[in-house]
Each structure stands twice: as C-alpha cells, then as structure tokens.
Amino acid sequence: MPIVTIQVTREGTASDRQSVTAEEKAALIKGVSELLLNVLHKPLASTFVVIEEVDTENWGWGGLPVLEYRQKLAAMPEN
Length: 79
Known about the structure:
By secondary structure, the protein is an alpha+beta fold. The protein has a single domain (3-75), classed as Macrophage Migration Inhibitory Factor (2-Layer Sandwich), CATH 3.30.429.10. Helices cover 37% and strands 23% of the residues. The protein has two helices and four strands. A two-stranded parallel ribbon has the order 1-2. The radius of gyration is 17 Å and the shape is elongated. The N and C termini lie far apart (49 Å). The active site is at 2 (proton acceptor).
C-alpha cells in the first residue's frame, strides 16, 4: 500500500489565489496514482495520496525563515 505525500507551498500558484485548487489536487492525485500503477504496478485502489499545503511561515531555507532568506538574496549584488 503506497502512501505518497506531496507538499506544496501556498504561493506562486496564481496571482489571484493563495492555495491549490480542488481540480489541481485531483490532477495531482490522479497523476501520482497512475505513475505508481504504470511503474510499480500498484493498484489504484491501494494507493493513497496526501497533499499538504505549507504556508511560507512554516518553512525555511538556508537556515532562515524563507521570507527572510529571499530578502537576503534580493539584497545581494548580482555577479
């Protein structure tokens, strides 16, 4: 019984929204399930897909909260 967890940020999906739509989630579930069926021959009925949306406050990058890290990158001169 495969269990696949997909974590996506709540940003950058479109300028007018902050989360993944139900249709997009359905497409992710279908695509991942079919991939496991085609590659590992895992039946669709035994595959579980969990989608977690992560707020920017809840993840970090380079030892900093992600928004601080991005500010640091933006302040760096380009080479």
